[in-house]
Amino acid sequence: HVQLVESGGGSVQAGGSLRLSCAASGYRYASYCMGWFRQAPGKEREAVASISTDGVPTYVDSVKGRFTISKDNAKNTAYLAMNSLKPEDSAKYYCAATQTYCRAALRGVADFEYWGQGTQVTVS
């Protein structure tokens, strides 16, 4: 039974920071690409960042230089460190996992098989 559980969301002021975590279980974690997505009310879910099995990150342009995706295979956990947060970063953030090759490619929603329940990030 595959399970992804996000944590670390919250409310911060513009310019602040948060670090999201995604704890995975039920599958061979190291062999999956991990991704972070976000969805604001009334908008489609969009890819924010992904990290390949060998640790190569890819980002959407709007977060480059501000967000950092990482993973710890020993802990089966992926992270999204978010700095210099802006109000437009407010959304529900989801982590996801896929066996689709994602090195140097930001895969979309349809490419990911497993999803967490999401964690809310609000920037004011």
Structure description:
By secondary structure, the protein is mostly beta strands. The protein has strands at 3-7, 10-12, 18-25, 33-39, 46-51, 57-59, 67-72, 77-82, 91-98, 114-115, 119-123. Strands 2, 4, 5, 6, 9, 10 and 11 form a seven-stranded mixed beta sheet that branches. A four-stranded antiparallel beta sheet has the order 1-3-8-7, with no helix packed on it. A hairpin with a 4-residue loop joins strand 7 and strand 8 (77-82). The radius of gyration is 13 Å and the shape is globular. The N and C termini lie far apart (37 Å). The model has no long low-confidence stretch (mean pLDDT 94).
Q: Compute the CA-based radius of gyration.
A: 13 Å
Number of strands: 11
Average residue-wise pLDDT? 94
Percent of residues in helices: under 10%
Write the topology of this structure.
Layout: E1 3-7, E2 10-12, E3 18-25, E4 33-39, E5 46-51, E6 57-59, E7 67-72, E8 77-82, E9 91-98, E10 114-115, E11 119-123
Output the keywords.
mainly beta; seven-stranded mixed sheet; about 0% helix
Could you write a compact summary of the structure shown?
By secondary structure, the protein is mostly beta strands.
